[in-house]
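2024-03-11 09:14:02 DEBUG pipeline.ingest accepted 1 chain
2024-03-11 09:14:02 DEBUG pipeline.ingest length=425
2024-03-11 09:14:03 DEBUG pipeline.predict start
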Amino acid sequence: MKQSATLPPSSEPASPLDVQQFLHSYLAEHATQPESVKMDLAFVAGRVLAEDVHADRDIPPYHRVMMDGYLVHASDLKPGQTLQLSEQGLAAAAPQSFSLSQGQAAPVATGAAFPDGWRFEDLRVVPVEDVEVEENQLKLAAGVSSAPQQYLHLQGSDAPAGTPLLRKGQVIGPMETAICASVGCVTPHLRPQPRLFLCTTGSEVVPVAQTPLQTEIRASHEHMLRHMLADRTATCFSQHVPDDSAAMRAVLEKRSRSADVILVTGGVSKGKHDHTREVLESLGAEIVFHRVSQRPGHPLLVATWNNSLVFGLPGNPLSVTACVARFVIPFLEGWCLGGWPEGRPQLRTEDIEDLSTHTRDERFTKYVAVRPHLSASRSSPHSQALRAQNSGDYRAWAGATGVVDLPPGRDALPDFVDLYPWTLR
């Protein structure tokens, strides 16, 4: 595949920005598919719209009363005035006929339609807070007032019929779901998600339900990554292989045909049993990066193979997590958006407790996990930087919602740092 990013010499680690620029270029070539998929509204959270959603009628579709109260003639709207309660009232239901004599007041509910055939100048809404009711009589408060159209949500004032309410490329959250439902868009057109294959490695790894020997560990990577990526991929197949190059090769050959993205965890360092690079090269993959000037996650590998992009992730849990948050999640989101996500959420460094205690390196970007935190000494929400003993200390990142990146160097920290969350936006 043609590489449009400028790559560093193979003997030098790439920078995180080098990797990002390459992924940006890859998406520009591969994530422009015009097709869309339709999905029931109950399952669209976090997905990306493939077409605009329009108002199918005026919003609101009628002049909607906004307060529980009473309808009175404008000429009767006088402080202290006593009115007779009408037996007829208006509820939030189907259109209904309405009549009101001079000197009467009719109950009206929030959501009811302002009566057809009446002028705003002649009929007013008075909130329940501005009246006193005793038996069948109503007395207006001393300071009562109600202007024409006050307490009314006028037909089409939010959006006339045909107005675009949601735009193509918008991520569907709770409010977007409500908008789709309100206009009858029950199966919106969505951008397709990438198909992902997850290959975990390690001869020391056993299933989570198995009691491990002292030198074995349970398979936590698969479960963690499925949690991080479940809502960002169309399918996520996974398989574990031991530290054996032939076994890895057989699995990758079988699964690669049905995957847009392949994640391999472990086997990317320089040890005798680290086979990921040699297996990929033997299959004809082109290694784009191997080693990135970042910690944790220095051994990260990125390759292209047929129509798949391959991420070779380091084996330690914090390295896996940091690399997925920094590169894999934005890439998967960019696949659905049709390009690398523009902009990033940022945190003010002075609002991240304990961040300044983290030692920085002249050569490496450092990823620090943060979790929301509210201390007794501060009234405003902020974050706490978490400290791990090493890249295998996964218990130290419990409660974290993402990582921030600290630039190389010993200078003072910038005022803001980029946040790479692994929770859904």
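2024-03-11 09:14:41 DEBUG pipeline.report The chain has six helices and 27 strands.
2024-03-11 09:14:41 DEBUG pipeline.predict end
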